[in-house]
Design goal:
Layout: H1 2-20, H2 27-43, H3 48-77, H4 87-109, H5 111-136
Helix pairs in contact: 1-2, 1-3, 2-5, 3-4, 4-5
Protein name: LTXXQ motif family protein
Keywords: Signal
Signal peptide: 1-25
Length: 138
Amino acid sequence: MIRLNQILLTLFVSCSMLLTATAQSDDRFEKIENQKIAYITKHLNITTSEAQRFFPLYNQYSKSMQNIKSAKSNLRSHQHEHQNSDMIEFDSKEVELKKQYRNKFAEVIGAARASQFFMVEQEFKDMLYREWQSRQNR
């Protein structure tokens, strides 16, 4: 019964993410993002009711983090034009954003799972990287 609930939850979350995806989204990106959501749901044991509140927050967090990383990347590519800019400022912004959203996530899924979220997210990224590497070595 619990397994069925997790499968239904994963399908629900995946479908809702597909419906809210922007028209410019690359099909591959959507698939990866859906896999990430399913991975997070499974590893944090997020219930259906928690998912309805958690994933809108997650989407906000993800968008904000992407904006910071994009600005950081842009600075890196134009470093010669911005000699006074400090990359540590962007690292600090990332940490502050994580702290802010850890508190928001904790209101929905509890403090322990909110803290664990960042580890689960990194595990997923590591898994993707290993997959990519294995494809490159074929």
